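Team,

Forwarding the record for the chain on the shared tracking sheet. I've put the sequence and predicted structure together so nobody has to dig through attachments.
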Amino acid sequence: MKTPSGTSVGVDDPYEHVERCDHLTDDGRCRYAAEHGQHDPEFAAERRADDLRCPAADPEGAWDWADCPHFRARQRSRECVRCGLEEVRLANAEARDTRPLLEEHHLSYREGDRREPSSKRAERSEATSREHEPEADMAHEITVYLCRWCHAKVHGSWARVDDDAAPDPEAIAAKEERRTKEQAETGFETAAERFDPGDTDDSG
């Protein structure tokens, strides 16, 4: 797959890297239909008629993730999906001027570039397919986190998101530097450490 600018996104099928939709509740229901149904009343009504059940999350359901017009999947864990590097955030003013270790990497793409329909989608009736297929100009948001170093390699077209990779030495060094700063920011001296017996005033 390619970005609109022509650089690689490091995957063939973004949907293979999705664990769940952001709108999916723990019990398999559609939060979008429940909380934002006014934006798509027809979609919300159909989901409510089925007790808000998500037909893409159900293994026996009629949809894949790609079939839902409101699908969205954004990685929540703050670590690089390729090498596992974890983010270390600085809490002081310096953080505003410091480039993050991790960067959001978009895997989403437009309907016209999607893979061929799966067997599930092929088995759906023509009427259901017309009713639920996303509009051609709509893109699904699918994002993951990559460290700056993996991000550059993936966009350089020679690295893949699912590579079995270790963090770059420069990435490890940058992370350790931040940890040192983080520890310095949270460090403090106890009263005993601040008190120097030599400073006692014995004049009185």
